[in-house]
Amino acid sequence: MTKQNGFAVIGKPLPKVDAVSRVTGQAIYADDMLPPRTLHCRILRSPHPHARILSIDTSAARRIPGVVAVITGADLPIKFGILPVTQDERALEHEKVRYVGDPIAAVAATEEEIAAAACDAIAVEYEVLDPVMSIDAALANPKDERIQEYGGPNNIHKLVALEFGDVDAGFARADHVREDVFFFQGNTHLPMEQHSAVATYVDGKVTLWSSTQVVHYVHRALAKVLELPMNRIRVIGAAHGGGFGGKTDPFAHEIVVAKLAMMTGRPVKCTLTREEVFYAHRGRHPVLMWVRTGVTTDGRITAMHFKTALDGGAYGSYGVASTFYTGALQTVTYDIRAYRFEGCRVFTNKPPCGPKRGHGTPQPRFAIELHLEKIAHDLGLDPVDMKRRNFVRPMTRTVNWLRVTSCGLEECTARVMDASGFRMRNRRPGHGMGFAISSYLSGAGTAIYWNDMPHSEVQIKVDRGGVTAFCGAMDIGQGSDSVLAAVVAEELGLQPKDIRLVTADTDTTPIDLGSYSSRVTFMAGNAALEAARKMRALLVEAVEASGRRFEEVTFEEAIVLAEARFGTLTSAGSYTPPKIAGPYKGSGVGPSPAYSYSACVVDLDADPRTGLLHINKVWIAHDVGRAINPLLVEGQVEGSVYMGLGEALMEEQTFRKGLHKWPSMLEYKSPTFLDMPDVETFIVETNDPEGPYGAKEAGQGPLLPVIPAVSAAVFDALGVWIDEVPVTPEKIVEALRRQGKGEAGRYGPPGFPDIPYPPCIKVEPPPRELDLAAPATI
Amino acid sequence: MKNEVKRPVDRHVVALHVNGERTELLLPVHKTLLEVLREDMQLTGTKHGCELGECGTCTVLVDGRPELSCLLLPIQIEGRAITTVEGLASGSELHPLQQAFAELGAAQCGYCTPGILLASKSLLESNRNPSRDEIREALAGNLCRCTGYAKILDAVELAAARMA
Question: Cβ B108–A639 below 8 Å, yes or no?
Answer without folding.
Answer: yes
